[in-house]
Amino acid sequence: MAKYKMHVLVCGGTGCKASQSAQIVENLKAALADNGLQDEVQVVTTGCFGFCEKGPIVKMMPDNTFYTQVKPEDARTIVEEHIIKGRKVTNLLYTDPETNEHVSDSKHMGFYKKQIRIALRNCGFIDPENIEESISRGGYEALGKCLTEMKPEDVIQEIKLSGLRGRGGGGFPTGVKWEIASKNHADQKYVVCNADEGDPGAFMDRSIMEGDPHCIIEAMAICGYAIGATKGLVYIRAEYPLAIDRLQIAIKQAREYGLLGQNIMGSGFDFDIELRYGAGAFVCGEETALIHSMEGQRGEPTFKPPFPAVSGYLGKPTNVNNVETFANIPVIITKGAEWFNKIGTEKSKGTKVFALAGQINNVGLIEVPMGITLREVIYEIGGGIKDGKEFKAVQTGGPSGGCLTKKHLDTPIDYDNLIAAGSMMGSGGMVVMDETSCMVSIAKFYLEFTCEESCGKCTPCRVGNKRLCEMLTKISKGNGTMEDLYELRNLAAVIKDTALCGLGQTSPNPVLSTLDNFWDEYVEHVVDKKCRAGVCKSLMSYEIDQSKCVGCTACARNCPVSAIKGDKKMPHTIDTAVCIKCGACIERCKFGAISIK
Amino acid sequence: MVKLTIDNKPVEVAEGTTILKAARQAGINIPTLCYFELDGMKFENKPGGCRVCVVEVEGRKNLAPACATDVMEGMVVHTHNARVINARKTVVELMLSDHPNDCLQCSKSGDCELQTLAQKLGIREIPFKGEQSTYKKDRTLSVERDMDKCIMCRRCETMCNKIQSVGALSAVNRGFEAVVSPAFDQPLGESSCINCGQCVQVCPVGALSLVDNVSDVMRAIADPTKTVVVQTAPAVRVALGEEFGMEPGSIVTGKMAAALRRLGFNYVFDTDWSADLTIMEEGTELLGRIGKVLAGDKNAKLPIFTSCCPGWVSFYEKNFPDMLEYPSTAKSPQQMFGAVAKNYFAEKIGIKREDMVVVSIMPCLAKKSEAAREEFKVNGNPDVDFSLTTRELAHMIKQCNLNLNDMPSEDFDSPLGESTGAAVIFGATGGVMEAAVRTAYEVFTKKKLDNIDFEVLRGFDGVKTATVDFAGTPINVAVAYGLNNARIIMEEVRDGNPRGFHAVEVMACPGGCIGGAGQPYHHGDSSIIRKRMEATYREDAGKPIRKSHENPSIIAIYKEYFGEPCGHKSHELLHTHYFDRSKKIEKE
Amino acid sequence: MTKVKSLADLKAMREQFQSNLDVREKSNNQEEMVQIKVAMGTCGIASGAKQIMEYMMEKADGMKIRAVFIQTGCMGHCNAEPTIEVIVPGREPVVFGLVNNKKADEIFEKYIVNNEMVDGVIAINNEVADK
After folding, report:
1. Nearest Cα to A140, choosing from A334, A323, A328, A271?
2. Which range (A585-594, B36-45, B147-156, B477-486) has the least confidence?
């Protein structure tokens, strides 16, 4: 095999693929062939680099040059300039928003500086469809170590010592979960990987499966060994075709190499994995609902206990962990619990992957040590708020989480601190909002999501969330009263107190946290009938400044509902009762006479 | 044993007990809606969905559903503090906010668990206004669905799927749009529904109700050209009293006959009479088949399945079309009565069948659809015109300003009114089998049966099996109620009948007809069904004649009209045949 | 393909595959290893830069020196091609001109291993070279 002097890594995550990264790979290969360099330069399709804001990403190695927003037609330039002439293609380099300077090495980019990559260690580094690359990064060695050198209870002990907690949202100690499953004896047990990632905007798990599927397979086998299960199931949403593809390839390769199947590495341990497809119901991320869905039942939760560790898939002891949780396992086994334990805070160890989104400069996937502050994430990694606007709130934990404000910026991020602040870790969604976000509308947005995704089994979630949502709509329309605000809080509290599953119990969090942190804004909506962010249309009114209006009639002629009246060359007026607030008049007015109040 | 405190009361219960049951043991009644228990089937429905039974458990961050939470040592439970009451009230208010609240016109008014709960919690206004679910109404020949009233407790779904394994009803859609419905929103009548009505029996509100035929019957009575004949099923007499405030298990046979007469029925007869007739036919058929099998006839199938229960008949026509030769061809007592009334009796009193209206009072909803079957009609005129339930009869009596309590005790009319104890026990699970054995034994062995009480066939167990010694010939019988239990036996028979059953009795409803869907609502309290069962055997024990073949009126009609059991005439009038109705399920 | 039959098998396989990822592994911590930048302008290639780079890569492997090789453009010393820049962690970068196999051996054996200067240094840092 040719020994390549240079590797060109092209992101093949779903996001970059959507921006034609596959074409970039084709073009790079063609350009290299044209120059006779196909044996000197290797083009590798990898998983996600995380910096999706700037995708598609192309990374040159060994000089570590990081090209952003590459288009297929840039491929030839990269080959001719960078590879042949050794000159960096400056217009494809990342520009630091603060210094306005080009940064070529990703290590020096703010986005990557504070990150520690454990779960994402191989994402954007290896070809996920090539098991050899995984093996050369130490893939399956942790499994080998467990099977050859450790007893199942040692493995559980190691995971317990590491302090790893479930990354799917709940934060239950993984080792304890495994221990419970291991102690329940049965003729058959199951390991289930929860890949039903459903928070809006979250794609941590998808990226891991797309970028490093072998680490999930390895971790599931380790778990199987630890708890005494020989069957693994990945419950993955059918909307993740690329992740499904890569997992299938990886499972096939692992079987071919004898890393799945009978008598793995001569240890006598058998383990195999099957995929199960979900139809994308959010509630199926809840482990009991997930299990019912896999069984072919309606995907809805059942009361725990019994926990899946006692009676899960087909009534057998089942251990369910999320993708990111699994992704941490091999590293913990290889490097030891003690190493892992040093990262993070007292009760939250290791790192957490977040999908950073919203009004922030660097949108993307990040992995940061527990205990990092929101300020570091937003301003250093995220590069601050877009367009120099003011930070207003950050929503963590998806529809189950809450909105945190300026006063929480210096709170170290971990499971317990986020809950104390009225939000939660969740699976890792992080949406940053600026002053143009209306908090009533934000709460409504998340409630609409939960209403849509509620399974409808328990009354508080089925009817209660619907009523919460209707009250929020009433408030955003300017029809709310102070009584509504109190009723809103009472109902939200009762839902939290009485709902059947985690989805229902946490669904009022966006309402409660905004009520707590942005009470004034709610009061403004109901008392002053004002929306300071200018989002709630019903609360806006358009006005013509009589001193500025010259009576050109442009606005009146373009008003679709004829709400503007006035004689030629005389100041016009808007009949607010008729106005539908479409904004057509503002666009037409050349004199800046029309404003929103 | 586990010690805990509920509402400051120390309680000691067995491990694995739920808070709900522990509280009940301590005399504290935590309200429930989605919960119900069928203790005979050892089935407890505790999905924890309605959240009405939530209680506070100290140390827990949220409230716990009492029905689904097991007690723990040292647990401290509060069932009625401010937090719990506020939550419970809010939950019920939420239900009411998506409910038509048309109690005055609702068929369930007075029997509605939601109404009772709202009253108990003192709900005076509903603070939540918003969208209400609206669905199109749907009905089969037996069941009416008005899903606007559904509170998604999904007891019906449990009955339909877990107990009956019919699979007609299940939750569809999500969130606020979630509702219980047949698949693809098809009409219930086109689904796999077998009209057993158990969904109606467990529905706590008015979402599922029966198709009411009271006014049809009132019209027939008012029509001077019609002779209206009524027959009453065995299980009705031990339940009707409940509707008039009597203790469950009160026997009101005589009062019922009196009331029916006062309602204006021209002839007040008894389905018990035709139950005795059924035993003659079915028992003879059983012995015939056993004889054929013993003689090596490959076409004769064993076991014979009883065919009295129309829900069950519909179930095997839909689910086991490959096994239609197993069930007895004998019609059900309702249909035998209808056939005899419209042929033999009409002739006897000299009227045309078109001028006779046969009404049946049944504990059952499926009987309504059985009566409407094409094979039970002559030129479009049905043998049984209308089938009313126990509840409808009660309404009719009340509507006519009568009170069952005030009725004298009267006898049924003759000749179709005389019956034996064997007919009475048709109402309870195992009763048909016991009655059949009483007769078949004596016919087969030509010996007198000394002890006619087959205790082993009685009781509330979902499946009972026994071997009866027919003077040296062991006869293996099985008794099941709940169609899932029946399905298990059917599949076993299909797989070669390893337990060698000769006869199997199946009733669709819990405890047999006494737990039928047309009976007064038991609201999940199976002690009521048990009391009806006790009453049934009490009535049997009190009868002077307790074997069907000793019923003088039955002996007389064979002599006068039918000749012999399973003879030519009885095949014509008293037997039927079955159809493959599985296609209907697949149609959608 | 052979199945992995033991942990030892797996480790051997890793050894075997690892070199394929060497270029990437090194790029992640190039500051910690010897960086050798080879000028690959037309002039450099014409003077044998490609051949010398390959030679040096093998040399580094042979001596078990963790070194990362980076191709750069012309450094402006067209008269002294092939030109290479060597950065040993903790030392100033040094540019060598007219590098041939013999010179390469010297650079490795003397300069990199023992910090002994060898002939052919063009300038001790880029700034000077640029002047």
Report:
1. A334
2. B36-45
Q: What is the pLDDT of residue C61?
A: 83
With tokens 């328990």, the residue in question is A458
We report the CATH number of the domain holding residue A369 as: 3.10.20.600
Q: What percent of chain B has pLDDT over 70?
A: 99
pLDDT band, very low/low/confident/very high, at A348 (cuts 50, 70, 90) = very high
B282 is catalytic: yes
Residue A53: the pLDDT is: 86
d(CA B231, CA B250) in angstroms, rounded, equals 20
User: Per the omega criterion (within 30 degrees of 0), is the bond before C82 cis?
Assistant: yes
pLDDT score for C1: 59
Residues of C in contact with A83 (CB under 8 A): 71
- The CATH class for the domain spanning C30-130 reads alpha beta
Residue in the block written with tokens 């003192």: B122
Q: Which helix (H) or strand (E) holds A49?
A: none
β partners of residue B481? B507
A497: nearest CB among B48, B87, B98: B87
Question: Quick one: average pLDDT of B308-317?
Answer: 96
Three-class SS state of A527: helix
Q: What is the pLDDT of residue A97?
A: 78
d(CA B404, CA B406): 5
Q: How many domains is chain A built from? A: 5
Q: Of A286, A311, A341, which residue sits at a domain end?
A: A341
CATH of the domain at A151: 3.40.50.11540
pLDDT digits (tens, 9 = 90+) for C41-50: 778 888 888 8
CB pair distance less than 8 Å for B131 and A281: no
Instruction: Name the burial class of residue A174, with classes exposed (0-12), middle (13-18) and buried (19+) by CB atoms within 10 angstroms of its CB.
Output: buried
Per-residue model confidence as pLDDT tens digits over B497-539:
999 999 999 999 999 999 999 999 998 888 999 999 999 999 9
| B311 φ/ψ angles, rounded to the nearest 5 degrees | -65, -45
Nearest to A456 among B50, B70, B173 (CB): B173
Whether B90 and A496 lie within 8 Å, measured CB to CB: no
In angstroms, the CA A21 to CA A10 distance is 7
Q: Among positive and negative, which fits the CA dihedral B93, B96, B101, B104? A: negative
Same structural domain, A524 and A549: no
Q: Is residue A479 part of a domain?
A: yes
Q: Which of A313, A341, A369 is the last residue of a domain?
A: A341
Interface residue B583 vs chain A (CB under 8 A): no
Determine whether B446 is exposed, middle or buried from the number of CB atoms within 10 Å of its CB (0-12, 13-18, 19+).
exposed
Instruction: Check which CATH number belongs to the domain holding A87 and give it.
Output: 3.40.30.10
Question: What DSSP assignment string belongs to B257-273?
Answer: HHHHHHHT-SEEEEHHH
| Residue in B243, B285, B392, B434 annotated catalytic | B285
Distance between CA atoms of residues A273 and A190, nearest Å = 10
Q: Structure pTM?
A: 0.89
Which helix (H) or strand (E) segment holds residue C87: the answer is strand C84-87
Q: Judge if A458 and A429 occupy the same domain.
A: no
Strand order in the sheet with A231-237: A272-278, A231-237, A190-195, A318-322
- Containing H/E element for B474? strand B473-481
All domains of chain B in start order, with CATH: 2-120 (3.10.20.740), 138-210 (3.30.70.20), 224-273+334-406 (3.40.50.1780), 279-331+420-583 (3.40.950.10)
More confident call, C72 vs A562: A562
For residue B144, report the phi and psi dihedrals to the nearest 5 degrees.
Answer: -110, 135
Pairwise CA distance, residues C27 & C41, whole Å? 22
Q: Sort out which chain C residues have CB atoms less than 8 A from A62's CB and list them.
A: 23-24, 26-27, 30, 68-70
